[in-house]
Amino acid sequence: MYDIIIIGAGPAGISAGIYAVSRGKKTLVLEKAQVGGIIGKVSTVTHYAAIQAKETGATFARRLEEQARGAGVEIARETVTGVTLTGEVKTVRTDKGTYEAKRVILANGGTPRKLGIPGEAELAGKGMGMNAARDGAAYAGKNIYVVGGADGAVKEALYLANFAKKLTIIHFEDQLACIPEFREKVAAAGNITLRLGARLHGVYGADRVERLEIASEKDGSVETIEDPGCGIFVYAGVTPNTELYTELALEGGYIPTNEKMETAIPGVYAAGDIRVKQVRQVATAVADGAIAAINAAL
Length: 298
Known about the structure:
The protein is α/β, with parallel strands linked by helices. The chain folds into two domains: 2-112 and 238-296, 3-Layer(bba) Sandwich (FAD/NAD(P)-binding domain), CATH 3.50.50.60; 132-234, FAD/NAD(P)-binding domain (3-Layer(bba) Sandwich), CATH 3.50.50. It is built from six helices and 16 strands. Strands 1, 2, 3, 4, 5, 6 and 16 form a seven-stranded mixed beta sheet that branches. A hairpin with a 5-residue loop joins strand 12 and strand 13 (222-226). Helix 1 runs parallel beside helix 2 (57-70) and helix 4 packs parallel to helix 5. The model has no long low-confidence stretch (mean pLDDT 97).
């Protein structure tokens, strides 16, 4: 029996854990993978107050975990398989056990969205759907394609351009959806080209990507590009991890909350990318976690 159970150990969950423990609450954070969530897998962390020079997702995630454990936050590597959120006492079931608490904070973020195109599943990890921080160096001197034009996608593209012979950003809109700072860096890179108003249509090959298809958003025409051994990195947004929360009414898959991070169910809070909000950044996730924990501890 815990005072507060937090599902997810990304920035929102870790922030919530630190604040909950500081208020004397017996707190458990459940995380199925690595502390840090999606931010722990990015090449670089930018625009967050007090980050270190050359901050990577891995270094940021490591410091999150060190701070949480140093504060006395209990973190368990378990996969949540079911929850009962209604009632005074909440129940959280995992692949290793069952836990109860009077307060639960849902902070398990989202999962990178798939494109649903031919060859995506078959060539995953074989040149398709790669991770920039982990796999970028393996494509040094080769052609690299980045799918996506928002801040996160373009930031990873700029990192990957350090390795690429040529890097192509494929984005369905007529202009990049990133901040001016990143647009300026793309223009200055020298080896980055843009395929705007276009989508990745399919990837083909046996043990690696041999060719890809790019479709035009304007006329539907499809261009086939032969590029054996290229690397394709997809940043097409995320899908919120809310499939277990059937007791909650969702909005577009996300959890509505009030300014205290309270959901419609008493004693249940949501924080970070999983909730309905305008801005999904590390800074707002950390703030959400703090607000949720402070109110859950009352």
